[in-house]
Design brief:
Layout: H1 3-8, E1 25-29, E2 38-42, E3 53-61, E4 70-74, E5 77-80, H2 86-91, H3 95-114, E6 129-133, E7 138-143, E8 148-152, E9 158-162, E10 167-171, E11 177-181, H4 184-199, H5 207-222, E12 224-227, E13 233-236, E14 246-247, H6 248-258, H7 263-274, E15 286-288, E16 291-293, H8 301-309, H9 329-339, H10 343-363, E17 394-395, H11 397-417, H12 424-438, E18 441-442, E19 447-448, E20 450-452, E21 455-457, H13 475-485, H14 519-531, H15 535-552, H16 575-590
Helix pairs in contact: 5-16, 6-7, 6-9, 6-16, 7-9, 9-10, 9-11, 10-11, 11-12, 14-15, 15-16
Length: 591
């Protein structure tokens, strides 16, 4: 079975919409309808789906006026009809499922003959009608004699159009729809070729992980958007559902997964994240089609006032609050270069990373003690973590660990790409920062603590495990962190590593960053375990993490640590979860 067909098993049109790389059009099932009615939306920065409605209903009708159900979904088309091939492939991954497919094949041949078409393959079941993309901004439909499409518009209008000759639904900038004749066969072939080219790059991994890897590769392709304001740059966004921008942190994780199949696109994500540094080197939180989000002044006035109220306690409350993301740029750069070396490109990006690293020490050490702080929760990536329940700025052990790691990564990259450059200042700064990081260790509690405006925060969170990434912790501290990872009362839960210890009063299995499992923090802790001399425990955590994604039904934004399923408010088809699943699957398949 092709990788595209494997991915198609997961395209339920609810958690995974029908879309096309670089398209802003999304097609979903209408969950409130008992029939095969679909909804069409656009994908826009910081806008909810309900605010981006194109069609409230798209239904294919047979000659008798009956709404035809969705018969099958592949990345390049949706099929409508009564062919019974559909649900077996999506739900049954055992050999008996394939037997069921062959059992239904004769009935498909009969239907094919009735429609005057050639016999189908198992990967392309016959249907009475099909829907595909005709370029990024249009849908194409065609059907057998007597079929028609019913379109319900947000303003209450309803139109019906015959499908036998094929029609094209163009979605224009104001979300209105143009209806014209279209060459459906050509559109279908072009859409299939586009997806086939994408899946030709999909990493090949262990058999037990390949179906989910194919789906995760689909997620990364589906989440590609074109950013015309950036010279038609291709951004792989966290999700086309609201998250239509390139968040700095997300870009790093997404690039790490993309490198296994498309190193060029991986490099492009880093280029976007690095494109707009401030004059003092700070990298923005988000790059999007309308500009950048680098401080509270880049937000609407209501949001600016809220951010300032929760911003730096030692800065002028009327001043802009810088917004960025944790310093993992050199980490991501090194990993992308491991897949495909690009010396000239590396030197250019490295210069930007060095200025950004320097900014953390000159622009974000808000109390002047030598250890930079998060000036706002947004800059941590863990916005709702209990380490921000106290006053701000917040000195956190994860930030200290990232800074130590980044200075050492910079020194290594300079030695490789700029052999005449001096690296001593980066190594010396890493050593100073690590000494300050060790000062955040509480021997009595046996964990690293965060400090809000100098006051200790006792919450037991995943950020306290990140110092493992330095690989140079004293033996007693290292052993205590390993014990925490292995403690079923704290972090060793059945489905993975919670973001707040289960024994902590702040723990919640559903609240964002206050207990649910996130794939990125699990992957970073696994890397820290390996760096700290525990490769077997690192592998076990990686195996547990990919098992979670398979069990949970896909790469969601975050997971309930007790059930292993998507947390109620988490986004589906999430970019960095998909990318890091692929990275982990490749790693585990090589061992």
């Amino acid at each position: 079975m092709s990788l595209a067909a494997l991915a198609g098993r997961r395209l339920d049109l609810i958690t995974a919409p029908f879309t096309l790389p670089e398209s802003r059009v999304l097609v979903f099932r209408d969950e409130d309808a008992a029939d095969g009615t679909l909804r069409v939306h656009t994908s826009e920065y910081e806008r909810r789906l309900d605010d981006c409605r194109v069609l409230d209903g798209l239904a294919v009708l047979d000659a008798a006026g009956r709404v035809l159900p969705v018969a099958d979904v592949l990345p390049h088309r949706i099929a409508f009809g009564d062919a019974p091939v559909v649900e077996r492939a999506k739900r049954d991954e055992t050999p008996s499922g394939d037997v069921d497919a062959f059992r239904h094949f004769d009935s498909l041949r009969s239907l094919s003959t009735a429609l005057g078409r050639s016999a189908p393959s198992l990967n392309d079941p016959v249907s009475a009608a099909s829907l595909t993309f005709d370029g990024p901004g249009a849908l194409s439909l065609s059907g057998s004699a007597g079929t028609r499409v019913r379109l319900a518009f947000p303003d209450g209008r309803v139109e019906e159009h015959p499908l036998e000759a094929g029609i094209r639904l163009g979605v224009v900038a104001d979300r209105s729809v143009t209806v014209s004749h279209g060459d459906h066969a050509a559109a279908l072939a072009a859409c299939e070729a586009r997806w086939d080219a994408w899946f030709a790059k999909c990493p090949v991994v262990r058999d037990d992980l390949q179906q989910m890897a194919a789906f995760c590769w689909w997620v990364l392709g589906a989440n590609i958007v074109s950013l015309p304001a950036l010279g038609d740059a291709r951004g792989v966004v966290p999700s086309k559902i609201g998250y239509v921008g390139v968040w700095q942190w997300d870009a790093y994780f997404i690039a790490v997964g993309l490198r296994h199949g498309d190193p060029e696109l991986a490099r492009e994500q880093l280029e976007i994240a690095f494109r707009f540094p401030s004059a003092d080197g700070q990298l923005p939180d988000v790059v999007h089609e309308l500009g950048v989000l680098a401080s509270s002044d880049d937000l609407p006035e209501g949001d600016r006032a809220k951010l300032r109220r929760t911003g730096s306690a030692v800065a002028d409350p009327s001043a802009p609050v810088p917004l960025t993301k944790p310093p993992l740029a050199a980490w991501a750069l090194r990993k992308v270069l491991e897949a495909e070396d690009a010396p000239d490109w590396a030197r250019t990006q490295l210069a930007t990373i060095i200025r950004s690293q320097d900014w953390w020490f000159t622009g974000s050490d808000l109390d002047g003690d030598g250890m930079p702080e998060y000036g706002h929760p947004y800059s941590s990536g863990l916005d709702d973590s209990p380490i921000f329940d106290g006053p701000i700025p917040t000195a956190a052990p994860d930030l200290g660990a990232y800074l130590v790691r980044q200075d050492r990564e910079i020194a290594d990259l300079l030695s490789r790409y700029e052999p005449d450059a001096a690296t001593g200042r980066f190594l010396e700064r890493a050593a100073r920062t690590e000494r300050l990081l060790h000062g955040m260790w509480d021997e009595g509690l046996g964990r690293f603590l965060a400090f809000g405006d100098g006051r200790r925060i006792d919450s037991d969170t995943v950020v306290g495990l990140m110092p493992l990434l330095t690989g140079t912790l004293p033996g007693g501290i290292r052993d205590a962190l390993l014990a925490a990872v292995d403690d079923p009362a704290r972090f060793a839960l059945e489905w993975g590593l919670p973001t707040v210890a289960a024994s902590d009063p702040d723990f919640s299995p559903e609240r964002m960053w206050r207990g649910p499992i996130w794939i990125n923090t699990s992957a970073l802790v696994a890397e820290g375990l390996e760096a700290s001399g525990h490769p077997e425990r690192a592998r076990a955590l990686r195996e547990q993490t990919v098992r979670l994604v398979v069990h949970g039904g896909g790469p969601h934004e975050y997971y309930n640590p007790f059930t292993g399923f998507k947390a109620e408010r988490a986004t589906t088809a999430f970019g960095w979860s998909a990318a890091l699943f692929l990275d982990l699957a490749v790693m585990l398949s090589r061992d």
